[in-house]
Specification:
The complex is a heterodimer. Chain A is α/β, with parallel strands linked by helices. Chain A is built from seven helices and 14 strands. Classes of the chains: A alpha/beta, B alpha/beta.
Chain lengths: 216, 258
């Protein structure tokens, strides 16, 4: 069996070490590389788009390296892409964070803040923000990345903003924190999670293992 | 099913070795942070916190290697505290694989550091550790102040106001330790925990004083803590994390099963 190449997008933010180590742990016959080179991304067999931090820095970090174009190009190749946390949010159309930021628009939806939504719903101070810790994910459709993971398994989340989709066909997983929100979303060769599989112990590693074998 | 309350074992690390003796029957090297972290992970710990108590600065780099090694083998959130004084310290720990850093004394000396760290790396990875001590008399309205140097040095800062200020500056979580209760094993300072939890919008981790599993339950139910941190009850093999979760579940608290 030949070795595949899995590229982790390095746009100057985030804890790439954990993602790297987790992918190395679970993927067989895989050369896991960390890169900020658009050519390396495009030539990889699969790509992981990780992230923590704020959306403005994320989008700026991508653009300054030409990685926004590379990611959009990669999506068109049909090869598997997994985005995590701020990576998921960056694939939506627009985020309310940092006073409003245009995103990459791969998925038909927008990103809003929990604090504002809770204040509107009179839930303020009953629920802490960020949403930090282990919440259940309801799988909304069968998908190769859910293989071997029980319905409502807990994953680790840490975020203050959340995605909302225009319609449900792309919704892969849903979590409720005061309100229901997008825990994961998928379309064709792209799968994205709001939670951190690399920090979600057993089920997180299972999802990463599934990703390393996913044939779209 | 909502958000699970978290149980966080805390390990004191001195020059790269776990101190205060961790007791697992089948562990080869109880001083090895990787071995100990792996065992807690297997038992169902929701996160692990490392407190670097290394006194000499030339051994600081050792902690970075500890974090790298643990992060290569344990896939749950890791927090590192102790000696985080500048942005470069934060960056080094995050790059090594820590998910959060805990800032304590440096926040008291320079509150702007919290804002800078939060703006640069995101509030989600900035924990502010607050060491508080009760300063009011028994017949007065309860009042707590911030202390530094292991609870020896008063700062005159009101704990509740301080917690609010830290959150305004960008703390994503508060690690609250009662210096009156730390090491006593008589339970958390519940009025303090509740007062801080009510005062801030971010999660609060209760710490200091845990001696049995009911204390953990009380911290969540009465203290309204989002997470509970303990050291000695887990280290000395009195209880496993799994037993702690069972006790919490029986008390009607949502926890993560494995």
């Amino acid at each position: 069996m030949s070795t595949q190449r899995l590229a982790i997008v390095d746009y100057g933010m985030g804890n790439i070490h954990s993602v790297h180590k987790a992918l190395e742990r679970v993927s067989e016959n895989t050369d896991v590389i960390i890169t900020d080179d658009p050519q390396q991304i495009l030539s990889a067999d699969r790509v992981m788009f990780p992230g923590v931090g704020a959306i403005r820095d994320c989008i700026a970090g991508l653009k300054s390296r030409g990685l926004d174009e590379a990611l959009l190009e990669f999506v068109k190749t049909g090869k598997p892409l997994l985005a995590i946390c701020i990576g998921l949010q960056a694939l939506m159309r627009h985020s309310d964070e940092n006073g409003g930021v245009e995103c990459l628009g791969v998925f038909p939806g927008d990103v809003h803040g929990f604090s504002q939504r809770f204040a509107d719903a009179g839930l303020y101070h009953e629920l802490k923000v960020p949403h930090m810790g282990w919440s259940c994910v309801e799988q909304m459709q069968a998908h190769p990345l859910w293989e071997g993971i029980p319905q409502n398994a807990r994953f680790y989340f840490v975020h203050s903003f959340f995605a909302e989709l225009d319609e449900d066909s792309a919704l892969a997983g849903e979590t409720v924190y005061g309100i229901p929100f997008v825990a994961s979303v998928t379309k064709g060769n792209v799968f994205a999670t709001q939670f951190h599989p690399e920090k979600s112990q057993r089920w997180g590693l299972q999802l990463l293992s599934n990703f390393s074998k996913w044939n779209v | 099913m909502g958000l699970a309350k978290r149980i966080i074992p805390c390990l004191d690390v001195d020059a790269g070795r776990v101190v205060k003796g961790v007791k697992f029957v089948d562990i080869r090297d109880a001083g090895d942070p990787v071995e100990v972290a792996k065992r807690y992970d297997e038992q169902g710990a929701d996160e692990i916190t490392f407190l670097d108590i290394t006194a000499s600065s030339d051994q600081r780099e050792t902690m970075v290697h500890v974090v790298e090694q643990v992060a290569s083998q344990v896939f749950i959130p890791l927090t590192v505290g102790g000696g985080i004084r500048e942005l470069a310290d934060v960056q080094r720990m995050l790059r090594a694989g820590a998910d959060k850093v805990s800032i304590n004394t440096a926040a008291v000396h320079n509150p702007e550091f919290v804002r800078q760290a939060s703006e640069r790396f995101g509030a989600q990875c900035i924990v502010v550790a607050i060491d508080a001590k009760k300063v009011s008399a028994e017949d007065e309205e309860p009042r707590w102040e911030i202390f530094t140097h292991g609870g020896r040095k008063p700062t005159g800062l009101d704990a509740i106001e301080w917690a609010r200020k830290m959150v305004e500056l960008g703390a994503g979580e508060i690690l609250l330790t009662s210096m009156d209760r730390d090491g006593t094993k008589i339970g958390f300072d519940l009025p303090l925990t509740r007062a801080i939890s009510d005062a801030v919008s971010v999660p609060v981790i209760a710490s200091g004083g845990v001696g049995n599993l009911q204390h953990l339950v009380d911290g969540v139910k009465e203290g309204k803590a989002d997470a509970v941190l303990a050291a000695s009850i887990f280290h000395f093999g009195e209880y496993t994390i799994a037993q702690a979760k069972e006790a919490m579940a029986q008390a009607g608290i949502e926890v993560r099963d494995q």
